[in-house]
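To make the argument concrete, we let one protein speak, a sequence paired with a row of structure tokens, as a model reads it:
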Amino acid sequence: MLAQIAVFLVDTAATFLVFLLLARFHFQWLRVPFRNPVGEFVLVCTNWLVRPLRRVIPGLAGLDLATLLAAWLVQALGTWLQFAIVGGQPSPAPLALVAAVDLLRYSLYMLGFAVVLQAVFSWINPHTPVAPILWSVTRPFLAPLRRFVPPVGSFDLTPLVLLVLIQVALIVVGYLRPAAAALG
């Protein structure tokens, strides 16, 4: 029972921090402005980890590699701690691959969540302060689909198509995680 509680707490803390770090990485990659409540929250919660890493790890082609590395390290450490709590000894290579697959999976979850929120807010409150953030996050993924999926009447079906594609990608990623873990 205590091991289960400890695993839950480690997973919750690590996943929360990883989601914040991934949000920071994606916001910078997609050029989402940080001058909003969500962006400021992400910066305040992650600066303590990202700023020291930036002194050592430079960005590359507009990508914040320090933030991505921090997310990967936190995910790997959280996974290792969970194994250690239950008495397992994971190998470093599979652990690194599992952490990378988890980052991809979490990124897909975040995109799907942004698409759903954007669709809901477009119906009930299109002028919410979060709308520009959601638009900035989803636009690069919806714009190419809009060339192939015409509106039906006055309804834009591209968010639905994107959600289906995200779900297909999550199914594929779901098979990658056990395969990566089995390498050890």
Q: What stands out?
A: The chain is about 75% helix and 0% strand.
